[in-house]
Amino acid sequence: MLEAEPGVHLSSRMVHVTQGGNPIDDTQPDADQVGVSVNERVAMVIDRIRPAVQNDGGDIELIEVTQDGVVRIRMHGACVGCPSSNMTLRLGIEQNLKTYVPEVTGVEAIEES
After folding, report:
1. Helix runs in the chain, H state only
2. How many domains, the chain?
3. Chain centroid offset of residue 18 CA
4. How far apart are CA 94 and CA 70, in angstroms?
5. In CA terms, which of 21, 45, 68, 95 is 20 to 30 Å from 108?
6. Regarding beta strands 2-5 and 58-65, do their DSSP bridges make them parallel or antiparallel, or are they unpaired?
7. Inter-residue contact 18 to 4 (CB < 8 Å)
8. How many CA atoms lie within 13 A of 97 on its CB side?
C-alpha cells in the first residue's frame, strides 16, 4: 500500500483514510437501510472519516447534498490552506462517499465565510 500523504493510503481496492495509522473499516456503514436519505448516508460516511481528519488538526462539515448528487463540505482548522487538503478531498472523502453512497457524483469544498 502506498502512502499518498499522512493518513491517506492508496490500495488497489480503495483509498483508505486512516485513523492513527489504522485503516477505517472498509465495510459498508449501516447506510443501506430502507428509508435512510442520501443526506443521512453522506453524514454517516463523513462521521466515519472525521476522526482521521481531526487527528491531523482539521475537521470537515457537511453543508449540503445537491439534487444532482454533489456533496458540499467546508474544511476547518489545519485543513484550511493545507497543500494536501485537495488530495484528502478527492482521494479520501470523495472516494469514500462515492463508494458508500452511489448517488454521490462529486464533492466540492466551500470556502469559510
Report:
1. 38-55, 85-87, 95-100
2. 1
3. 11
4. 10
5. 21
6. unpaired
7. no
8. 28
What is the pTM (predicted TM-score) of this model? 0.69
d(C-alpha 105, C-alpha 32), whole Å: 18
pLDDT score of 29: 47
Ramachandran region of residue 7, left (φ > 0), alpha (ψ -120 to 50) or beta? left
Yes or no: say if 49 and 96 are a contact pair by the CB < 8 Å rule.
Answer: yes
Give me 16's grid cell: 483508505
Domain of residue 34 covers 2-110
Contact between residue 29 and residue 45 where contact means Cβ atoms under 8 Å apart: yes
CATH of the domain at 59: 3.30.300.130
54-76, pLDDT tens digit by residue? 998 989 999 999 999 999 999 89
d(CA 69, CA 101): 10
| Gap between the Cα atoms of 19 and 104, Å rounded | 23
28, three cell numbers: 459498508
Residue 26 DSSP class: -
